[in-house]
Amino acid sequence: MGDDRKIKGAVDRINNLPDVILQHILCFVPTTKVAISTSLLSRRWRHLWCEVPSISLDVDTLTAASVNETLTRYTAPMTKSFHLILENITENIPYIDRLIKFAMSHNFENLSLDLCSSYEEFKLPDFFYSSDSFKQLKIYSHKIVPYCTVSWTSLQKLSLRFCRLSDESMSKIISGCPVLENLTLYDCYKLKVLDLSKSLRLRTLLVHRNMGAEGPRQIVAPHIHCLRLLHSQSSCTLVDVASLTEAKLDICYALSNPNFKFKAEPLQVMVLKNLEKLQNAEKLTFGGNFVKILSLAEICGVPFPILKVKSLTLDTVICKYVIPGIERLLQNSPDLEKLIVRGKIYNSMPGEHLDQYLKLKSLSPDQCWKSKDGFSWNKSRLNVQPKHVTSFMELVLKNTEKLDKIVVLLDERYLTFKIEYVIPTLPHNSNVTIVLSSTNKPMASEELTSQKKEKRMTEDMMIKGAEDLISNLPDGILQHMLCLIPIKLAMSTSLLSRRWRHVWCEIPSITLGGDTLTAASINETLARYTAPKTKSFDPLITPITKEKIPYVDRWIKFATSHNVENLSYFKQLNIYSHTIVPFKCTVSWTSLHKLSLSCCSLSDESMARILSGCPVLENLTLYHCGKLKVLDLSKSLRLKTLAVDRNVMVPEGPTKIVAPHIHYLRLLDSRPSCTLVDVASLTEAKLDVCYALSTSFFKSKADFLEDMVLKMLEKLQNAEKLTFGGNFAKILSLVEIRGVSFPMLKVKSLILDTLIYQYVIPGIQRLLQNSPDLEKLIIRGRTCSTIPEEHLDQYLKSLSLNPDQCWRSKDGFSLNNSCWNLQSKKLDKRVSTLSQKQCHHCVLHQQGDDIRLVMADVRRIKGAVDLISNFPDEILQHILCFIPIKVAIKTSLLSKRWRHVWCDIPSLTLDVDSLTAASVTETLTHYTAPKTKIFFLKATKREDIPHIDQWIKCAMSHNVENLSLDFPRPYYEEYKPFLDLGSSFCEGYKLPGFFYNSSSFKQLNIKLSLFGTMVSECSVSWTSLQKLSLSRFRLSDEFMAKILSGCPVLENLTLYHIRELKVLDLRKSLLLRTLEVKRNGWVQGLTQIVAPHVHCLKLLNSQLPCTLVDVSSLTKAKLDICHVSMNPHLTADFLQVMALKMLEKFQNAEKLSFGGNFILILSLAEIRGVPFPMLKVKSLILDTVICQYVIPGIERLLQNSPDLEKLIVRGRNYNTIPEEHVDIYLKLKTLNPDQCWRSKDGFDWNKSCWNVQPKQVASFVELVLINTEKSLKLVVLLDERPYLKFKIEDLVETLPHNNNVTILLSTNKPMTSEEKALEEAELWFHVNAVEDGGTENRVPERERYIKSEP
């Protein structure tokens, strides 16, 4: 396998890089899991990841065993970064201390702990607080209480996010970090005073407080130089920031009720006090809300301090609410040199709140916001006009003295005009540079600069001391890399840094996209180019315009002055009359190895001069070169390759070729008179005839073509490798029909570029007969022939021959008369049936009477290595697990290497419906794997019954770990005789006795028909079984008890539509943690479940009774009722009793999920006044649409769940109990349905899922807020497909606001990240999912779907 564009002797430069560089590259992949996967690339990469200086582990996506295996193999002597992600702390507590200890034992410099949990009982170990290797530390979401002394003696950067942190704990941490330089506190709770006076080296501080976070009220930081402070409306005072030179401040303001009385005085006091502390700072950045508070202070006449700021950045839109504050800032900044206004929507403080505040002060808002200078200002960001921008510029110029530059970046999303229209109206000042741009176009350099400077304050992920290894590479390597990209991109690298400024100027190869560049830009590029020697120069001047003609000579002179080795002058020329006449000078290309002349008018004398000036020429290509008669290459002693192309558009060309030294010839000829005079050294050739002429010409010239072809064939007698095109083969067929003798050939490899049909068979047959040494024949079925078949028939008729008689096969073969109707034939008739679409290359190897078909690639390079086949058997077998077994077996035809690879694959999937019983038996006979991980068998035909025992025995003999037996109910018509007798496929078959005794099973899935029975007189012994799934058959209590007693390590049990089982007693299954039971409306099944050890339960119950006797260890559960809407008299009394009894058993569960029917039954119980138990649930999921029939039940659930922290409502139509049935039931109870469903709180609810309106969603959110006490996260996912008649955006503004509640509102199209997370969270219910590291597509269809669902 290879690429015909690959240069002979090319080196894999990536693999040849030092380990250090490759390991540095692997540091940038997302996780260590991805880095480990590179070990499959080749032996060179096998152990590279083991010494990567950076580790990133997402423990929630890995098993404990895989994490331990990774850390065991990690051997890096020098480590820099360790990133640990743990969302579910409760399940990973045993591993956290070990992982942290591992990081500390390897002296990681950069440690990041992402503990996304509110689990209070876990605390970081004491040894964590003592380390001299940490240089950067990030902790996300955890309570930090260092009971011991903190000693992080090398720590330079510390980032704490969403951490509960007291003043004492913070003081301990600061005292234990003597060299701390950078500190980030992001929404850290309980911290009151941040005293950094003892942190002498601290230079950068970032404090972020949102509306719900308690944070530092006072900041004492006398040594910091850079401060970024985003705080809420609560007070935050800068006590001491004496060394500050750069700062960014804003206020986090939450939108409140418009009637809320905006208390601006505390904010004004706080803002002005902070402003006083920033008097000596030279660089300041203020957000929109901060500027609005300054505007209020200015209107109220509060004095501002004088500032020494030189660069001021304002993140605000231009509107009337910020102008007074900006004007005062400019007047009080006499040294200001640069002003940047970034018109992004950072202003979340509504203007109406400001107006109401002014009215409370007995001030007229219109009068206050009116400009003193007569400027007209816009009220909102949505109506910015050109005059407002012009007025702002005039205001700035009027209030500044030393200003050097103004940059205004407008948000184009809200602009109703083009920026070009504003520029002529701007005021002019020779001392000030004005830059005006938009924010959603390619980012302006000014904005890039400002963002880079912000990153300098917040780049908490960058490791101090990390080197830019790419920039540290030698110039030669960087310039080689730049050769592989267009020159425009190469030049753009000069903007990266000073190191890169002049690197491109000496790259050894230049390719100028002349068709996309002007002559002036090309000249400018070449003027800056300073390389002493150039390997390749290609100006790509296509097409040549009048503008470029005067410069062509200059560009060629430039190339020769730089000693260019490879000059591509005209790569494509649309003028076919370019003439090369080197009469006036001598040609001297003394180092030229390859010469290509295309579409040139070239005389014999000119060609002779060129050849005499190229003493080391090795490769010559002449493409459509006219006027050349004799091509004499006898003096070109080193010339080895010649290619001559002549099409019908350029009929003139060489009629004689004298090339005694060439080894390879490619000739595509268009004239019936081209003679190979001397090609004595030829070993390889490719010939064809270019034909596109009329019938009359072919009749008159066919004899000449035949004569020319035979003469060429005589000259090729000694060549060992020949390639003939389709037209050439057709001419040979005519020669054979006329009985002209062919020369004998010594060819060993013959390639025919032709389709297989009657017009080429005589010629091919004669070639084969006259090639006694032929070892290899390749037929590439391409449509390369252009001689019409009608012309051949007309020519034969002109010779008084019958075409049908001539083309008839002498051997009796039936041949197609066109390339378009090729039919399938057997290989023993020597007819290939493969087309271009089926394979690149068809090779027929003949050994006696045996002909074997081999696939190849036309791009294969001589000497190339098949890296895939060189993989170890284990890797190849792992790959084959991902394809169907029939395809895997076919790989045995590839080569001897692959013949027996499939026989040891660790996974087998046998669907007998698509295979015969004989083929399955044959497959298993050849199967030799010592151990099988997955074996899946599906059979539905009655004639398969005698073979099933043998197949199961084969699987067990290979120590199968995951066995799936799928014997579903057959089609009714096919098995009607059996069904009439009460039998079926499964009743005619019983699992053998030896099946119940196995120590290798770890996962077992058995699926029979609803009429099947699983019975055995022997005992069950599945000592290693961890997962068991039983689906759709009859099972007695006694045999279920026998199964459970034989599975001592069972962890996961699924019962899907199991009949006759009454009591499920799991008391003796001590390790069982997950149970899933599903019963539909027709299947009588479990009536009692005793499962004291299970943690997770999923129960889809029918209308029949089912009691949870003991589920005392339960922490997670999902419940619903399967209702078949046939009987309008709903048996709701019984369902209510059953649902409430189940609810009592879930009192201690922390995570519950209820379906729509279950909630509807709860609603009926609430209407009838039945008492509900109190629940300790923290996370509640409701799979129901929002309508009047579920509201009472939901309301009661919320009231009885005081600890609820998260509520998710997935508005999908899981409700299958018809609303009419519910109303009929209430009427039978002498209740008025309309009265029962009427809301007590005055909300108006929809009656059906089809008419959900925005007001109903808003009402539902209000209902939730009324009935919950603690901080709650509410997620509502509406079903957009058939039900939603409005846009989500129209709903958001109507939602109620509550600082303690986070509301996420979305639809199910496209799936949001929240919904994806929920789908993933459901996976713990599905016990049939494959194990980690397994192959998903080898398991049954249902399990495969579940696994791939996220």
From TrEMBL:
- The F-box domain sits at 865-901
Read off the InterPro entries from this record: F-box-like_dom_sf, F-box_AtFBL13-like, F-box_dom, F-box_plant, Leu-rich_rpt_Cys-con_subtyp, LRR_At1g61320_AtMIF1, LRR_dom_sf, LRR_FXL15/At3g58940/PEG3-like
**Matching Pfam families, A to Z?**
F-box, LRR_At1g61320_AtMIF1, LRR_At5g56370
Identify the CDD domains for this entry: F-box_AtFBL13-like (cd22160)
Q: What is this protein called?
A: F-box domain-containing protein
Q: Which organism is it from?
A: Brassica rapa subsp. trilocularis
